[in-house]
Design a protein that fits this description.
16 helices, DNA-binding, iron-sulfur, glycosidase, 364 residues, metal-binding, alpha+beta, hydrolase, adenine/guanine mispair binding, Nucleoside Triphosphate Pyrophosphohydrolase
DNA sequence: AAAACGGGGGC
DNA sequence: GCCCCAGTTTT
């Protein structure tokens, strides 16, 4: 383990530290746990939905989505039966849309193979789409009271600082080793609360970058990172690679007040979501009009809508926009403003253009 | 093991 | 405006 989790803590000191943490941590959690909707009634379904939403996403961002989602789709069966457009609309703005598609795959599998209810068995959970080691551990421990670790970024940060470990937490083997460490520290009672307490500590006290609030930390007295003052630059992560740039011309094509939208391919970036007409490269008005004509559109007037930039994890989109009023109906489907707002999911990458929809100038 | 996959918040 | 955050699947 020492080879993977680099710490200057002696094995005996490390065991001692791990044995000493659960009691103050759980006491602190009992005092300080935030009141959150999925904690009120932690059914397996609600825990699952919340855990998937919370992947890569902060609590504050999830809050407006959770109640709406579980009200619209109250159980596994309802989720399995939902149309994809409704799913994407419920998820619009949360990002990582494969999460909700996998959730539906998972719901269908649960309906087919587990009697319509999420299984309580960790290994069975792990086999389901969209459920990896973290989510399986979270559901098994929080909803079913079983003793499994749920190692997210918060837990990695807390543990790395607690034992003053500078191993690269992005490495799979390091995550695995921290999972084993967490399990060794986990009490046999309240495993779900123990996991949630670790994450809560990372989210509210043991903060990234900005100074951790060590004076308020229930583990402050036993924290090796704090004692050594190494916690400021922990956890360690390997540097990330550069994003690639993409240039697009975004055309809001309009005919008789309705807007042309195209559905993106089912798989890949923003799969299945709707977008305005997109042409590769930054096109001048002249060139844009030419390409639209070549694609069979009868453009009456073309007006600039300004530039926009959107940054994904791995790509930067630089966009130039145009409003194209057509003089004849296009082949592809048109949508009213109301349909776009109420039913269709348009990625927030296009927010600069979507925002202008209600105030667009009338056709000349 | 590395890349694909969004969007929001802090400074 | 730039930097940081981070589970699961696919390659």
């Amino acid at each position: 383990m020492d080879e993977i989790l680099h710490t200057d803590l002696a094995p005996g000191e490390c065991r001692e530290l791990l044995a000493a943490m659960s009691q103050p941590l759980l006491q602190w959690y009992d005092r300080s746990a935030r009141v959150l909707p999925w904690r009120e009634r932690p059914t397996p379904y609600r825990v699952w939905v919340s855990e998937i939403m919370l992947q890569q996403t902060r609590v504050a961002a999830v809050l407006p989505y959770f109640e709406r989602f579980v009200t619209a789709l109250p159980d596994e069966q309802a989720l399995a039966d939902a149309p994809q457009d409704q799913l994407l609309k419920l998820w619009e703005g949360l990002g990582y849309y494969n999460r909700v598609k996998n959730m539906q795959k998972c719901a269908r599998e649960v309906v087919a193979c587990h009697g319509g209810r999420l299984p309580g068995d960790y290994c069975a959970l792990l086999k389901l789409p969209g459920i990896g080691a973290y989510t399986a551990g979270a559901i098994a421990s929080i909803a079913f009271g079983q003793r499994f670790p749920a190692v997210d970024g918060n837990v990695l940060r807390v543990m790395a600082r607690l034992i003053s470990c500078d191993s690269d937490i992005l490495q799979p083997r390091v995550k695995k080793a921290f999972g084993e460490l967490v399990l060794s520290a986990m009490p046999h009672h309240r495993p779900g609360d123990f996991n949630q307490a670790m994450m809560e500590l990372g989210a509210t006290i043991c903060l990234p970058n900005t100074l951790p609030l060590c004076p308020s930390c229930p583990l402050g007295d036993i924290c090796r990172g704090r004692a050594l003052q190494t916690h400021h630059h922990l956890p360690h992560k390997a540097p990330k690679k550069a994003k690639r740039n993409e240039q697009w011309t975004v055309v809001v094509a309009r005919w008789q007040g309705r807007i042309l939208l195209q559905r993106r391919p089912e798989s890949g970036l923003l799969g299945g979501m709707y977008q305005y007409l997109c042409l590769p490269g930054h096109l001048g008005a002249e060139e844009c009009q030419q390409q639209l004509a070549a694609q069979g559109f009868c453009v009456h007037t073309l007006r600039p809508l300004g530039a926009a930039k959107h940054i994904f994890t791995h790509i930067v989109w630089q966009m130039e926009g145009y409003l194209a009023d057509l003089s004849a109906p296009p082949q592809e489907p048109l949508y009213t403003l109301e349909e776009i707002e109420e039913q269709l999911s348009v990625p927030s990458a296009f927010a600069h253009y979507t925002r202008q929809l209600p105030t667009l100038p009338l056709p000349l």
